């Protein structure tokens, strides 16, 4: 699972060929012991949880990088490695 971005202890990943379970474009996020799966480009929670502060940071990052996330999803869903996306600064 390639990590496509990291910021403030938040790791954002996207699996290649990961279309079976959630059936929607999505990202996997880890922060300490928390794991969450979010739909893209809207940030809807599909599974898991994250502390409120980190969730707000992540939602801001998703908002800024919607187009890049969707482009990465199309790459990953066809078996290609997604590109890195700039972290939140």
From TrEMBL:
<dbReference type="Pfam" id="PF13711">
    <property type="entry name" value="DUF4160"/>
</dbReference>
<dbReference type="InterPro" id="IPR025427">
    <property type="entry name" value="DUF4160"/>
</dbReference>
<protein>
    <submittedName>
        <fullName>DUF4160 domain-containing protein</fullName>
    </submittedName>
</protein>
């Amino acid at each position: 699972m390639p990590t496509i971005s990291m910021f403030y202890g938040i790791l954002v990943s996207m699996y290649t060929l990961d279309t079976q379970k959630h059936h929607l474009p999505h990202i996997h996020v880890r922060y300490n012991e928390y794991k969450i799966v979010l739909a893209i480009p809207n940030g809807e929670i599909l599974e898991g949880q994250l502390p409120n502060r980190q969730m707000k940071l992540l939602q801001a990052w998703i908002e800024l990088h919607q187009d890049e996330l969707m482009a990465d999803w199309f790459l990953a869903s066809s078996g290609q490695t997604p590109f890195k996306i700039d972290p939140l600064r």
